[in-house]
TrEMBL record, chains A, B, C, D:
<dbReference type="InterPro" id="IPR006076">
    <property type="entry name" value="FAD-dep_OxRdtase"/>
</dbReference>
<dbReference type="GO" id="GO:0009228">
    <property type="term" value="P:thiamine biosynthetic process"/>
</dbReference>
<dbReference type="GO" id="GO:0043799">
    <property type="term" value="F:glycine oxidase activity"/>
</dbReference>
<protein>
    <recommendedName>
        <fullName>glycine oxidase</fullName>
        <ecNumber>1.4.3.19</ecNumber>
    </recommendedName>
</protein>
<dbReference type="GO" id="GO:0005737">
    <property type="term" value="C:cytoplasm"/>
</dbReference>
<keyword id="KW-0560">Oxidoreductase</keyword>
<dbReference type="InterPro" id="IPR036188">
    <property type="entry name" value="FAD/NAD-bd_sf"/>
</dbReference>
<keyword id="KW-0784">Thiamine biosynthesis</keyword>
<dbReference type="GO" id="GO:0050660">
    <property type="term" value="F:flavin adenine dinucleotide binding"/>
</dbReference>
<dbReference type="Pfam" id="PF01266">
    <property type="entry name" value="DAO"/>
</dbReference>
<feature type="domain" description="FAD dependent oxidoreductase">
    <location>
        <begin position="6"/>
        <end position="348"/>
    </location>
</feature>
<dbReference type="InterPro" id="IPR012727">
    <property type="entry name" value="Gly_oxidase_ThiO"/>
</dbReference>
<comment type="pathway">
    <text>Cofactor biosynthesis; thiamine diphosphate biosynthesis.</text>
</comment>
Length: 373, 373, 373, 373
């Protein structure tokens, strides 16, 4: 079997599907090659926070990219609903970043300052004011930074919508199909050999998350998994209107009365089991912020393997050494948030519209930041 | 435990939840008492067709009610999305009622005529024209009546959205709670004894679908189940844009590439198993309309027990003999379609705004229709 | 539809199925009428402990019955495997009742004494000795009473095996079928009206667990639910060989590396949801006995509604007032353990072989015990 | 992380787990490296037929191996139950190979003859005699060959039992762990690099089923998938006592009233979806043998990817070119049946007890057979 495509994308997570969607929308013939099912790994496990402000401690280059991506969501949500019938659950009710200690409260001050300098709105409030809006929160919360532009989406629905949106625009989705090796001719990637046959193509995009390393073929590159374990509860009684974020930990209210609680960070393991001790500690910490968690209904536990890059920065751009190879991976905790901008940027690059190499820009920006500090 | 409510609703299906949503929106204190989970029976099993025109063979009183209800969906969809975050999957791309025999084709002519007289748009087309719009349909389809105002929703999501919408407006949802008996004082229903204690109330609404009989306490009334078995397939390749209806049988495209195929009619059994023979025959019939069904991916089988009333007509109104008791049941195949109008009408009746007894109007209308023929 | 049976059994839990199995084995025509599926409630949720000695604090009449029933398991296991192919997972490796406080340790002494007087073997050991056998247990365990005759089974498999064993012997199993009312003629029960029609019969057995009250029709009788919430973990590394019991709490190792952890006691609610707080506290308590629970893999949570009788004693015998009605319910935490003896005893009673009314014997025995103390 | 083992086994299917069990039983330190979960692929999908006689058309070398393996099951079943608590569902009630045409009936004669010459018992009977034993079978069945020594097991339980049996004997099971590459030093395999780190070892066994090719590194070797789709129905009424086999198609009665129906053969695809058309045709064919299938309860559909070798023969033996590498793969439809003998033989080879190379013997035997014909 020999099939010809403009672009073959390795990996059917949210990043690969977003790239497929952007490329298909520009008329390219695209194949997504996914070894399991669309969204089967980190994408379906994610809480879907669009926490540009709530989750950023410092003003770094990634912050700018995150702002751009967040700004794309309102239109993406409408368009995907029209094209695929799938509602991505986009909510823009803001996120509260909360403090339970003096140190945390001071940090909120600092964050508010630099974010306002970037032009982003945010608002500091004390615990009493917070509980007027979210009356079920614990009195142990001293203050909160409210980031009204932040929001959240349903991560599995976003991924599925990108895939079906791409398919509606002509892309081919190959589930249950593994890439066995790249086909390289005269130093240029010209196709992939898969378990469903050989696909020839002009360009290959590696978007394989924590499984990207074998396709990058460069010692200092590569991704590794950081497992995030999560639990969920549910309740018909509304307990929370907007997400609560605190130092890597969060509570995210979802439709149907669900509250997602996450996430742990376990480096270096591809084993997706959830440890019983993590279940207990996530519930304890959640209850310290929202005591009624204890009487809410248990609704399950799961985990995802978020892809961290060795350079601690997403790779988004042409591969520096392999012609015809493009790389979109290493988004770690920001895959959902950065999916729209990654897809659009990569389509620009592949179309040749975009001169800037985003990856280089990110690395350079970070270096400048480091030297400035 | 003693709780006081304005209205207690027996049954957490789409009808009970719609009534709860309408009543809560008008400021009443409402409890929904559901023995299993919200939507657990016929509501979650339904295909969600809003086939007012495609499914109606004759102009009868129910047709008028169905039109009214269909007209409510656009606003209901928007409001529920805002209040609950749940998208009910409302699609208004029309439905095709198809003919594979001369007899069926003649019937389409007749239906088009009377429907146009009622002011409804509909359009007859031959098979070639149909396949221009839906290219995967079988060449054995001779003609189709296109009903552009018809549509469909996701039945489980509609039910859940009504329940969470009611809860957001203050209603209490008691899952896992059975009504053991009505409490009647001086000929008036004043509460219900449940497995979660006694609830006193001003009014009780019976919306228990195929399980309503014990609460109606009148020999000629009652509901019985008509089991509908269904199967589903899925595909990334788009196979169908709008639902196909043919004499009680249908194919309904849903988000995520799913196509629902249904339904059988098995009278009188509360046993919800799907017979293997039904699976095979549903698939065969579906493939006779849409041959690519055969290569689509199998996606499961299930059934629902649709409540038929002894009078073959939904009961929507005050109980004729028990003061304080209201009845909303027996919607048979039209529970999803009629849910919005049932909720609003029942709220009018309970508020005393509505003088007309919808049940009587329906029965009277049907009698007039019968005598006219 | 009119079907004639010798005995109709209301309820397809472990008790109803055991009675059906015993009666069918004696040649009677039997129907089991189950409103959901076989074992759907408390039976499938149970941990399956056969903790005759480990769970009994005092020598009461029920202890004697429990001993008899435990003694039946070896043969029952072999017979059901032959007849149905189902292995009930019978394990007779004993149970350890453990003490973490001086008070608990003293209690173990007392229990050992009276149990040895009844002729039962049991052995007291200190923590060191215990950990030689079960090396992963916490050093906080001071001592343990080892009850070598105790064991456990897989509760869902036992229930299913009784049902299929009965069916293989000719019994009819009606799932998805509710009993709507008893048919009583001249003061004698002569059948049941169900959602699958009327079944006439000579005798009716009520074995409906926490849903038995409506069929007992006697003010002082009745059952109510005591919810037990449970969690499970799993591990390929063997962590525990035999069950650990401590004051109503237990860890039970099951095939496939699972460990069941239970159970809470929540009175009076039919709502089967598991509270998030229960998940956390069950895991914490389990880890205080077996610290490696924390790193084991989370494997789910569920609950069951165990039927407690108003007299805190199982009802096993003819109904004192309704001729033709027999009662087997209220087994609370001992349904699995007592199922074999309940089935055999009830078959004896129904055949007229058994003069003794077990229910009266139990009540009388308890009164004697009370007056002796 | 650096771990040392005697043997690392790539693949946690029934073959890999059987090898692990045999090696652990002989005191070796073993690791099983499985990229998903134990049994996740073909092993859990299999019907578990031990159809040595019913499935063999000709007396070939594999028949001898299959006889040996079948003879091991009674003891394996007992031992695994004792060591792991898992009952593998071993049933030795024989298999009926049936004929619906004259051609099929003649073939049964031929098979009976050569099998009796090998010393195996088998019995030819006409349709009437067959239906005395299996009264629900279709009258269209003309005759049957009864193979009383054949039987069946529960394939998922066998796989799980081997894994837990190995773990109980000290083996380490690494789920969620992929082998990234072999470590070869001086032409000898000395370990594997996995997603859970590097494991050094004396010997590596490749038992990766349809995913074995990358580890075999020899052009003419390799395995490819042959997808088998299956469906199941269930019934409390006993419909079938022993398996029915007909030319690659079978009905297998399992505990709990299930009947497995399979299987299709789809070559070359790793996509595990079940096609809707396969569901319909499997049910139709099953109903032509056992008409009551139509009214039985639908119980699901699934598929497995059976590993076929390029030489159409299982590979069981040392790798001909890579020192330290052993190969157990390509068992196609006979993985369950051949698992015990494969494990024992491989352990003999690895211990150096076995001089004969089973792979060479198989290939040689087949060549002799070919030249003789």
């Amino acid at each position: 079997m020999m099939k010809g495509y403009d672009v073959v994308i390795i990996g059917g997570g949210v990043i690969g599907c977003s790239v497929a969607y952007s490329l298909s929308g520009r008329g390219m013939r695209v194949a997504v090659v996914e070894r399991a099912q669309i969204g089967a790994e980190a994408s379906n496990a994610a809480a879907g926070l669009l926490g540009v402000q709530a989750e950023w401690d410092e003003h770094d280059p990634l912050f700018e990219l995150a702002r751009q991506s967040r700004a794309l969501f309102p239109k993406v949500a409408v368009r995907l609903r029209e094209q695929t019938g799938i509602d991505i659950g986009y909510e823009e009710k803001g996120i509260y970043r909360v403090a339970q200690t003096d140190g945390e409260a001071e940090r909120l001050q600092y964050i508010m300052q630099w974010q306002r300098q970037t032009g982003e709105a945010c608002e500091l409030m004390d615990g009493t004011e917070l509980r007027e809006r979210e009356p079920h929160l614990s009195s142990s919360i001293m203050s909160a930074l409210f980031c009204p532009q932040d929001g959240h989406v349903l991560a599995p629905d976003l991924t599925k919508a990108f895939a079906h949106g791409a398919a509606a625009l002509g892309a081919h989705i190959y589930e249950g199909t593994e890439v066995q090796r790249l086909i390289v001719e005269n130093g240029r990637v010209t196709g992939v050999a898969t378990t469903a046959g050989v696909f020839s193509c002009d360009k290959v995009v590696t978007a394989a998350g924590a499984w990207s390393t074998p396709f990058l073929q460069q010692p200092e590159w590569g991704t590794y998994p950081v497992k995030g374990e999560m639990v969920a509860v549910k309740s018909y009684r509304p307990l929370l209107a907007a997400p609560i974020f605190q130092d890597g930990f969060y509570l995210v209210p979802k439709r149907g009365g669900r509250i997602l609680i996450g996430a742990t960070k376990v480096e270096g393991s591809y084993q997706k089991h959830v440890e019983a001790g993590s279940v207990a500690s996530l519930l304890e910490r959640a209850a310290s912020l929202l005591p009624d968690i204890r009487t809410a209904e248990w609704d399950g536990a799961w985990s995802g393997l978020r892809p961290q890059s060795r350079q601690q920065m997403p790779y988004i751009g042409p591969h520096p050494e392999m012609e015809g190879m493009y790389v979109c991976t290493g988004h770690y905790r920001n895959g959902i948030l950065l999916a729209p901008v990654t897809g659009e940027h990569m389509a620009d690059v592949i179309e040749g519209k975009e001169q800037v190499n985003l990856l280089q820009a990110l690395v350079k920006g970070r270096e400048q930041l480091a030297s400035a500090n």
